[in-house]
């Protein structure tokens, strides 16, 4: 895979981490939460659009992913500034996600040539991702039940997910390859 296709992987990961930090700030009612979320959605929209247009061969699944990310980012931007038509974006997100899942689905997350071995660090990071996702789910459900410690559990889950997203940004991962379809993983 050429370096052109990997050029925006790190900025996109940082933008997603900023988005999660903005959502965490919104949960805690910290100042500038909406501005942070707005900035992150804008960055994701711009970066993913640039990445899509720089891609040499565009398959139908790439167009579907572009529609999904664009609809998701625009939905977030419209919700932040209280504009109408968010339902339209949510419908586009649902249709494009179902289409993507049928076409590529879980194969997107598999290492096609099986070159990456499961070492202890990778297993621990994947375990941390699962724990973070479960903490977010449990924190959300407990928050709906007005349980104490729901928000701290949710915050811990979001923090773990942010760390998982940013782990490759600060780590030295020479020789790591992307997916076989030329698309970058997030």
Radius of gyration: 17 Å
Strand content: under 5%
Indicate the low-confidence ranges by residue numbers. 1-5, 175-186
Class inferred from helices and paired strands: mainly alpha
Cα separation of the termini: 16 Å
Helix share of residues?
A: 55-70%
Please trace the helix and strand order, writing H or E for each element: HHHHHH
Oligomerization status of the protein chains = single chain
> Could you tell me the number of beta strands?
0
**Total helical segments:** 6
Largest sheet: none
Mean pLDDT level: 83
Shape: globular
What does the model show?
- There is one protein chain.
- By secondary structure, the chain is mostly helical.
- Helix content is 68%, strand content 0%.
- It is built from six helices and no strands.
- α1 (9-27) runs antiparallel to α6 (150-170), α2 runs antiparallel to α3 and α3 runs antiparallel to α4.
- The longest helix has 25 residues, at 120-144.
- It is globular.
- It starts with 8 loop residues before the first helix and ends in a 16-residue tail after the last helix.
- Residues 1-5 and 175-186 have low confidence and may be disordered.
What descriptors fit this protein?
globular, mainly alpha, 186 residues, 0% strand, 6 helices, disordered C terminus, 68% helix
Kindly summarize this structure in a few lines.
By secondary structure, the chain is an all-alpha fold.
Provide the fold topology:
Layout: H1 9-27, H2 33-54, H3 60-80, H4 86-103, H5 120-144, H6 150-170
Helix pairs in contact: 1-2, 1-6, 2-3, 3-4, 5-6
């Amino acid at each position: 895979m050429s370096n052109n296709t990997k050029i925006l992987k790190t900025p996109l990961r940082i933008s997603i981490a900023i988005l999660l930090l903005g959502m965490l700030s919104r949960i805690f009612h910290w100042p500038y939460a909406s501005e942070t979320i707005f900035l992150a959605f804008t960055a994701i929209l711009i970066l993913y659009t640039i990445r899509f247009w720089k891609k040499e061969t565009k398959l139908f699944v790439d167009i579907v992913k572009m529609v999904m990310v664009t609809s998701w980012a625009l939905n977030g931007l419209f919700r932040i500034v209280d504009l109408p038509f968010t339902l339209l974006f949510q419908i586009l997100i649902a249709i494009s996600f179902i289409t993507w899942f049928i076409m590529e689905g879980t194969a997107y997350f598999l290492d096609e040539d099986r070159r990456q071995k499961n070492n202890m660090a990778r297993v621990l990071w994947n375990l941390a991702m699962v724990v973070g996702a479960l903490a977010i789910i449990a924190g959300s459900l407990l928050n709906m039940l007005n349980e104490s410690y729901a928000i701290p559990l949710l915050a811990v889950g979001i923090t773990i997910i942010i760390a998982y997203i940013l782990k490759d940004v600060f780590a030295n991962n020479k020789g790591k390859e992307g997916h076989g379809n030329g698309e970058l993983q997030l």
